[in-house]
């Protein structure tokens, strides 16, 4: 049934055109009026009137020429055989369909020319008809003009629909582009933050290697040389990291001189958010352990972004933060009780106070440590952000 419906949707009008052409041809062959021509003129009329209907099959490729041909051929045939056109029910249907199609032509000027063709053709056909009256000279053109108006209204509606679809497509492209830019900016921000963590660790390694090298006896020349190479490699790595950071930083970005925060600074973050109007309740589960510096920073940023989004977009009065320390993973959960609809719409694009990009930033940080993220409307109302960060993730 679905295939039949799809076939009729695409080719149903073509089947109607062919059926109309067959009916018109049969009606022409069975004419019983005494005035109809015979011989070559009869064949010309039969072929012409059938072809004028079948011309509508080319309406997709020639939206103006195909229906205009129907009207022009029928008008010309009315001068050859006066009753050929006025007596055919099938040609009436074809003429009305052609008038509607002329109204739907995208080019407004061509569509108006199509109206002139339909009006002029209908006047000529009625005038050539032997039994036409003065009322027919008015009613028949008006009838086809109404058909053209139907097509014109369909044309206007189609254009509005296509314009709306185009605007939706462009808006979707803009949203995708904005999302890509947000992700790229967030990745750069994460890289700049983690640079300090990595640079500090490499600096400690270089200093320790240098201290060990100076304490080694002169007799261990080979070992001292190996440690010197390690120390020089570490210093080179630090130089390259600083050069990379300078390339990633925008011209107007100020250097970050403050220490990178971690979960130990969560109390200060909670105080700031409470002062802004959101009552935050924190629950710590399990035994807190020392976290790798990069993971500790990302965990803090995840909570910060989630709370900032709740503060800005949810309209919630209360938010709950759960920090769960496991044997091999860190669990983070931020739940607010705001409006689900508004929260779901804007949660992906809100920006945190630290310059991040809401859920985009959270997603990138979780991905960095091979973790899992679950964000969306909570079952009991509000919005829930739940992240799981393996303690060995990203290694």
UniProtKB/TrEMBL annotation:
What name is this protein filed under? histidine kinase
Start and end of every Histidine kinase/HSP90-like ATPase domain?
298-391
Q: Which UniProt keywords apply?
A: ATP-binding, Kinase, Membrane, Nucleotide-binding, Phosphoprotein, Transferase, Transmembrane, Transmembrane helix, Two-component regulatory system
Give me the reactions it catalyses.
ATP + protein L-histidine = ADP + protein N-phospho-L-histidine
Q: What is its EC number?
A: 2.7.13.3
- Classify the source by domain of life: Bacteria
Entry's PANTHER family? NITRATE/NITRITE SENSOR PROTEIN NARX-RELATED (PTHR24421), NITRATE_NITRITE SENSOR PROTEIN NARQ (PTHR24421:SF10)
Transmembrane segment boundaries? 12-29, 41-58, 70-103, 109-126, 138-154
Which GO-annotated molecular functions does the record name?
kinase activity
Specify the Signal transduction histidine kinase subgroup 3 dimerisation and phosphoacceptor domain's residue ranges: 186-252
Task: Tell me which CDD domains the record gives.
Answer: HATPase_UhpB-NarQ-NarX-like
Q: Which organism is it from?
A: Nocardioides astragali
Which InterPro entries does the UniProt record give?
Answer: HATPase_C_sf, HATPase_dom, Sensor_HK_TwoCompSys, Sig_transdc_His_kin_sub3_dim/P
């Amino acid at each position: 049934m679905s295939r039949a419906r799809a076939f009729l949707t695409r080719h149903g009008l073509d089947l109607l055109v062919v059926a109309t052409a067959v009916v018109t041809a049969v009606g022409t062959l069975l004419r019983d009026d005494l005035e109809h021509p015979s011989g070559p003129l009869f064949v010309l009329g039969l072929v012409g009137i059938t072809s004028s209907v079948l011309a509508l099959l080319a309406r997709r490729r020639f939206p103006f020429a195909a229906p205009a041909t129907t009207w022009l051929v029928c008008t010309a045939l009315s001068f050859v055989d006066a009753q050929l056109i006025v007596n055919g029910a099938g040609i009436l249907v074809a003429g009305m369909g052609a008038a509607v199609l002329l109204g739907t032509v995208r080019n407004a000027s061509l569509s108006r020319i199509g109206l002139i063709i339909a009006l002029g053709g209908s006047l000529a056909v009625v005038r050539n008809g032997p039994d036409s009256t003065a009322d027919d000279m008015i009613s028949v053109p008006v009838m086809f003009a109404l058909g053209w108006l139907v097509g014109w209204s369909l044309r206007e509606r189609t254009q509005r629909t296509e314009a709306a679809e185009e605007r939706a497509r462009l808006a979707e492209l803009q949203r995708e582009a904005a999302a890509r830019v947000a992700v790229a900016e967030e990745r750069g921000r994460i890289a700049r933050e983690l640079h300090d963590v990595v640079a500090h660790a490499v600096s400690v390694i270089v200093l320790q290697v240098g201290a060990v090298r100076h304490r080694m006896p002169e007799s261990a020349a080979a070992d001292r040389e190996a440690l010197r190479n390690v120390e020089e490699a570490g210093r080179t790595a630090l130089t390259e990291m600083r050069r990379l950071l300078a390339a990633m930083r925008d011209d107007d970005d100020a250097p970050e001189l403050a220490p990178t925060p971690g979960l130990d600074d969560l109390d200060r973050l909670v105080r700031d958010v409470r002062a802004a109007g959101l009552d935050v309740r924190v629950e710590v589960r399990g035994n807190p352990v020392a976290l790798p510096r990069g993971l500790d920073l990302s965990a803090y940023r995840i909570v910060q972004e989630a709370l900032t989004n709740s503060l800005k977009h949810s309209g919630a009065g209360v938010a709950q933060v759960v920090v769960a320390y496991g044997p091999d993973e860190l669990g983070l959960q931020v739940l607010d009780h705001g409006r689900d609809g508004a929260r779901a719409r804007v949660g992906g694009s809100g920006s945190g106070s630290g310059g991040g990009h809401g859920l985009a930033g959270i997603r990138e940080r979780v991905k960095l440590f091979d973790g899992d993220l679950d964000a969306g409307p909570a079952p009991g109302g509000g919005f829930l952000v739940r992240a799981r960060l393996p303690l060995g993730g990203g290694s």
